[in-house]
Design goal:
The protein is an alpha/beta fold. It has a single domain, classed as Rossmann fold (3-Layer(aba) Sandwich), CATH 3.40.50. About 50% of the residues lie in helices and about 10% in strands. The chain contains eight helices and four strands, in the order βααβααααβαβα. A four-stranded parallel sheet has the order 2-1-3-4. β3, α7 and β4 form a beta-alpha-beta unit. α1 crosses α2, α2 packs across α8 and α3 packs antiparallel against α4. The longest helix is centred in the middle third of the chain and has 15 residues. It is globular. The protein starts with a strand and ends with a helix. The relative contact order is 0.19.
Amino acid sequence: MTVDITIDTNVILFATEGHDSVRTPACARIFFTVLQEDNYKFAIDAEYKILEEYKKNLSDKRSNHTELFEELIKKQAYGRTESEIFRVRIPIHEGKIEELSQKGFHENDLIFVRTAPNTESGAIVSTDSESLLDEEYKNWIEDNLQVEVYSPEEACDSVL
């Protein structure tokens, strides 16, 4: 069985850029596990908005590593059948998304919130303490969507 994991862009950036951060090893472990092991895949929505988000952010940080990782992610995403790609689910109803937006939730992170409930893992991994890992947002997502939100370190222990 393949487990799809919704991975926020910042986890990939930490893994590919080699930030001098305590989070970099966990981010790299998640990234390489999902890329290399057949039983894990990046959760990608049917409209490829997550892929666009990855590409936009990786292209801003051009290096040999980011170009290679961008190609690997694209290969994994485009090698899927229609049934393996998740339809974007607007949580509960549009009003719920508006509720998150009005509370200041990052607009570019909404695609991850919309995709995660449809995945096998039911999880999002992020390093974003102003959005997905903010206690208020994290609790809202977990309570309303039954999606677990993990830091990279937590994900290494719970998801991988």
